Amino acid sequence: MKQHFMMFAAYNQWANGRIYDAAADLDEEEFNRDVGAFFRSLMGTLNHLLAADRIWMKRFTGEGDAPTALDAILHRALPGLRAAREAEDRRIVDWVGGLSDKALSGRFTYMTVSDMRTVSQRLAPALDHVFNHQTHHRGQAHMILTVLGCPSVSLDLTHFQRTEEGRAFA
Q1: What percent of the chain is predicted at pLDDT more than 70?
Q2: Interatomic CA distance for residues 157 and 146, integer angstroms
Q3: How many CA atoms lie within 13 A of 24 on its CB side?
Q4: What's the rounded Cα separation, in Å, for the pair 161 and 144?
């Protein structure tokens, strides 16, 4: 299981980098344009991904800053948001790399953000959710970039596995 989650942490970092690279050519208006996505704009969508990861990492580790809302705007400009995303991705990769098989099969307890309930669940399915959630909203970010006229970005896991960074997971 650890290798599986290490692959997804590395893939997550790689795919986020590709989305941010594609977004780098957008001007401020395009970055903030409401295109009808769930979090309206690319700025809102990328902030949601960072906010959700910080919330989950706080639940998993008990450390770090976590917003109190899933639609929190942590950074309005792309450079600051990208720097925070890169730091969070390194944090996720390092944390997953330090997990033992015993920890992965264990449980943890946390408080939900949306309705303030206490939940206890196994760690491995929660990690599956975190990486699936990233993929879901990165797909929305990809759609936003396409609507804004940016070239399509390949985010397939198999594409990652054929890169230098992903070859170890193929």
Answers
A1: 100
A2: 20
A3: 11
A4: 25
Task: Identify the CA nearest to 132 among candidates 4, 18, 2, 27.
Answer: 4
Q: Of 159, 162, 20, 4, which is closest to residue 89 (Cα–Cα)?
A: 20
**Helical (H) or strand (E) element with 110:** strand 107-111
pLDDT mean across residues, the chain: 97
Count H helices and E strands in the chain, helices first: 7, 2
Q: Tokens 């098989």 map to which residue?
A: 101
Structure tokens at 111: 């408080």
CB-side exposure of 60: number of CA atoms within 13 Å?
A: 23
- Provide Rg for the chain, Cα atoms: 16
The per-residue pLDDT for range 50-106, each reduced to its tens digit, is 999 999 999 999 999 999 999 999 999 999 999 999 999 999 999 999 999 999 999
48 pLDDT band (50/70/90 cuts)?
Answer: very high
User: Which residues have CB under 8 Å from 42's CB, separation 6+?
Assistant: 23, 26, 30, 31, 32, 33, 35, 141, 144, 145, 148
The structure's pTM equals 0.97
Angle at which helix 42-61 crosses helix 2-23, to 10 degrees, equals: 150
Q: What DSSP element (H or E) covers 134?
A: helix 123-147
